[in-house]
């Protein structure tokens, strides 16, 4: 104990004889260790953000969505998912817990003199639960509404704010096409999802009005006619989307397979796409792992460079202190004593670098927030062009990165210190004493 | 009392060969002599006579090519590196021509340094070192660094350092070689006093005035003993 303490004191003393040199060597390790922690944190932050996005789609959901095929493929019979598809899926795939048919059309909503263009979504009562929509006031569509084809609607938060800035929307009637729909509920605001790949595009829920899908079929039909100046477009489709939910995560992949086969049998055109958030989640996790490996590699390289710095300095020190080594050997130091002395110095350098690096690593989050706000202040245009992920990434400290970084710094100190130390110990005492 | 018991050291037919750029140099070609306890020996000889080589062997810094060297009954020639280090740490006091103090350490720390390697460091070690510094007349300069001391003072620190493990056997390699005549006198007085306390001292010198202060002179030439002259009994 006291012996180690003495060796430690001695090495600190020797290192302080060349403060600048020691500080620069420490800097090399500092950068390496802080780099490990920073890169892992940023990797984790990006990965978490992507996973959250995907998880918001529902990890146990399987989303089948109508895609408009190329113009010459579309026949008069229309395209896309059909009500029959929905019924078939429910009837033939036992692992499906819930499934919702969804049809989305663009409509203008009016109340008194106010109007707003938005998305009219025909759906069933399960829609709220499966897509994680929460009702703020009133209620969502009920089974009774569905059976009775009621002209009831539920408004997205922003629609309610825009159409009813002063009054309570509940119980009021809004006009869609030539029909009045009574407002029975208002939803809480919901963040838009960004496109995650597959057949799923980014979705904005702020201008949604939800009505029973049976009502939609009866009042609006399956045909959409879009007339714009110089353009006449006819669109015949029964459903925009079917979202199926299974009871647990293990069932997602096999169920997705069965759904794929079932739908494929009745569709000759490529008029639908299947998105499995779970699949994307797994992909995202793989990507994240690759990403972290890659960042780890970069950090490892910088640590090796730091280690080479230590070795370099220690070799110089050994040469410079040859005479001291000779004196110590002549006065009774064993080879082991000399090895320990020089090894202690390199380990002290690397551990100091490691500890400072960990402190630097802990500052990752506040510093990156600061850096981002400064950048946004000074270069707003350039920042606006950057991808959202880069602009909004929140570094997440990975807890195991701290012991890892510390262990690595100790290992680097030992690994790159052994050779100089052994070289010092191997010096012939007589030769070393003669050294000027 | 047998004769062996009173011997501090005994060397028999000591040989040392070096290979220098492919050529074998015979630095020592069979040197034998006994060192009784409490002896005070000067080794003289022209350069290249092998006196440095002999001193390195006596100081356990090196092993002979052939022959034996008994230090207190143990054959040093058969020791491994660790045992040699231990012998240097506990049984031999070294004084060098160029003092060989560590410039970064203070007077006390320099004196204390060999204790790290002899395992002799303890709570009272610091006091003992201060005591030794007083003994060599440097009680007022404990916290000075070697660069702040004169040559004679540095050599006195070196002597105090060589005494810290209380060795019975002291080796000095031209201890006055870098000193003026007044300081030489001081150092020789100090060494004489230590010899008077019963310590065995062997010093290498090329000055006959220094050799004259010792009890016995061994003259080396071409790696063999030319003459071994005793002036006073040990």
Description:
- The complex is a heterodimer of chains A (436) and B (234).
- Chain A is built from 16 helices and 12 strands.
- Chain A folds into 2 domains: 2-54 and 283-434, no CATH class; 68-270, no CATH class.
- With 436 residues, chain A is α+β, with helices and mostly antiparallel strands.
- In chain A, α2 crosses α11 (335-362) and α11 packs antiparallel against α15.
- In chain A, a hairpin with a 2-residue loop joins β2 and β3.
- In chain A, strands 2-3-8-5-7-6 form a 6-stranded mixed beta barrel. Chain A has a two-stranded antiparallel ribbon with strand order 9-10.
- Chain B is 32% helix and 29% strand.
- Chain B is built from 7 helices and 10 strands.
- In chain B, the strands form 2 sheets. Chain B has a 6-stranded mixed sheet, sandwiched between helices.
- In chain B, α3 packs across α4 and α4 packs across α5 (151-163).
List the helices and strands and how they pair.
The complex is a heterodimer of chains A (436) and B (234).
Chain A: H1 2-16, H2 19-55, E1 61-66, H3 83-92, E2 96-111, E3 114-123, H4 127-130, E4 135-138, H5 143-147, E5 152-155, H6 157-163, E6 173-176, E7 179-187, E8 208-212, H7 213-220, E9 223-228, E10 231-236, E11 241-246, H8 252-266, E12 272-275, H9 277-320, H10 322-330, H11 335-362, H12 364-378, H13 380-385, H14 388-392, H15 401-426, H16 429-434
Parallel strand pairs in A: 3-8, 5-7
Antiparallel strand pairs in A: 1-11, 1-12, 2-3, 2-6, 2-11, 4-7, 5-8, 6-7, 9-10
Helix pairs in contact in A: 1-11, 2-9, 2-11, 2-15, 9-11, 9-15, 11-15
Chain B: E1 7-20, E2 23-36, E3 40-44, H1 51-58, E4 66-71, E5 74-75, H2 81-91, E6 92-95, H3 107-118, H4 125-135, H5 151-163, E7 169-173, H6 181-196, E8 200-204, H7 208-212, E9 216-221, E10 224-230
Parallel strand pairs in B: 3-8, 3-9, 6-7, 7-8
Antiparallel strand pairs in B: 1-2, 1-4, 4-5, 9-10
Helix pairs in contact in B: 3-4, 3-5, 4-5, 5-6
């Amino acid at each position: 104990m006291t012996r180690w303490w003495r060796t430690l004191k001695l090495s600190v003393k020797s290192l302080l004889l060349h403060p600048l040199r020691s500080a620069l060597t420490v800097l090399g390790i500092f950068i390496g260790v802080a780099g490990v922690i920073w890169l892992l944190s940023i990797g984790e932050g990006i990965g978490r953000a992507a996973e959250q996005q995907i998880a918001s789609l529902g990890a146990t959901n399987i989303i089948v969505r109508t895609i408009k095929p190329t113009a010459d493929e579309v026949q008069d019979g229309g395209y896309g998912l059909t009500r029959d598809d929905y019924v078939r899926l429910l009837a033939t795939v036992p692992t499906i817990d819930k499934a919702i048919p969804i049809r989305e059309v663009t409509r203008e909503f009016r109340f008194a003199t106010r109007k707003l263009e938005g998305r009219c979504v025909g759906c069933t009562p399960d829609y709220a639960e499966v897509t994680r929509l929460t009702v703020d006031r009133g209620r969502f569509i009920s089974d009774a509404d569905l059976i009775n084809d009621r002209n009831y609607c539920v408004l997205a938060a922003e629609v309610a704010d825009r159409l009813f800035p002063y009054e309570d929307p509940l119980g009021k009637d809004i006009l869609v096409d030539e029909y009045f729909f009574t407002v029975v509920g208002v939803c809480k605001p919901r963040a838009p999802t960004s496109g995650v790949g597959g057949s799923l595009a980014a979705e904005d829920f702020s201008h949604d009005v939800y009505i029973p899908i049976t009502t939609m079929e009866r009042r609006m039909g399956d045909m959409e006619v879009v007339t714009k100046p110089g353009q006449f477009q006819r669109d015949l489709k029964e459903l925009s989307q079917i979202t199926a939910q299974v009871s647990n995560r293990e069932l997602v992949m096999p169920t997705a397979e069965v759904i794929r086969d079932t739908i494929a049998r009745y569709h000759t055109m490529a008029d639908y796409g299947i998105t499995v958030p779970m699949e994307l989640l797994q992909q995202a996790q793989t990507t994240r792992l690759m990403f972290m490996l890659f960042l780890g590699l970069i950090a490892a390289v910088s640590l090796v460079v730091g280690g080479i710095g230590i070795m370099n300095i220690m070799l110089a020190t050994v040469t410079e202190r040859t005479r001291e080594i000779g004196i110590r050997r002549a006065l009774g130091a064993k080879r082991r004593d000399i090895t320990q002395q020089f090894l202690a110095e390199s380990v002290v350098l690397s551990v100091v670098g490691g500890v400072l690096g960990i402190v630097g690593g802990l500052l990752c989050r506040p510093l990156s927030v600061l850096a981002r706000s400064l950048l946004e202040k000074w270069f707003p245009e350039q920042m606006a062009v950057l991808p959202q992920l880069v602009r909004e990434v929140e570094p997440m400290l990975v807890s195991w990165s701290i012991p890892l970084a510390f262990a690595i710094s100790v290992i680097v100190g030992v690994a790159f210190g052994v050779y100089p130390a052994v070289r010092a110990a191997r010096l012939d005492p007589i030769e070393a004493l003669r050294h000027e | 009392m047998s004769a062996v018991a009173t011997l501090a050291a005994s060397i028999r037919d000591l040989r040392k060969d070096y290979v220098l750029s492919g050529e074998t140099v015979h630095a020592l070609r069979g040197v034998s002599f006994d060192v009784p306890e409490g002896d005070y020996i000067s080794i003289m000889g022209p350069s290249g006579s092998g006196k440095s080589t002999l001193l390195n062997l006596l100081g356990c810094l090196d092993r002979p090519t052939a022959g034996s060297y008994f230090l207190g009954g143990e054959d040093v020639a058969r020791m491994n590196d660790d045992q040699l280090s231990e012998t240097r740490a506990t049984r031999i006091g070294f004084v060098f021509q160029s003092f060989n103090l560590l410039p970064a350490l203070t007077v006390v720390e320099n004196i204390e340094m060999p204790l790290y390697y002899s395992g002799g460091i303890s709570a009272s070690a610091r006091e003992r070192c201060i005591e030794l510094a007083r003994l060599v007349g440097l009680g007022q300069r404990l916290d000075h660094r070697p660069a702040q001391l004169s040559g004679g003072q540095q050599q006195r620190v070196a002597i105090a350092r060589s005494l810290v493990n209380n060795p019975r056997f002291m080796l000095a390699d031209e201890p006055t070689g870098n000193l003026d005549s007044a300081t030489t006198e001081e150092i020789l007085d100090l060494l004489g006093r230590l010899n008077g306390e019963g310590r065995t001292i062997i010093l290498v010198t090329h000055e006959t005035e220094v050799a004259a202060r010792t009890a016995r002179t061994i003259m080396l030439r071409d790696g063999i003993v030319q003459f071994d002259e005793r002036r006073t009994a040990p």
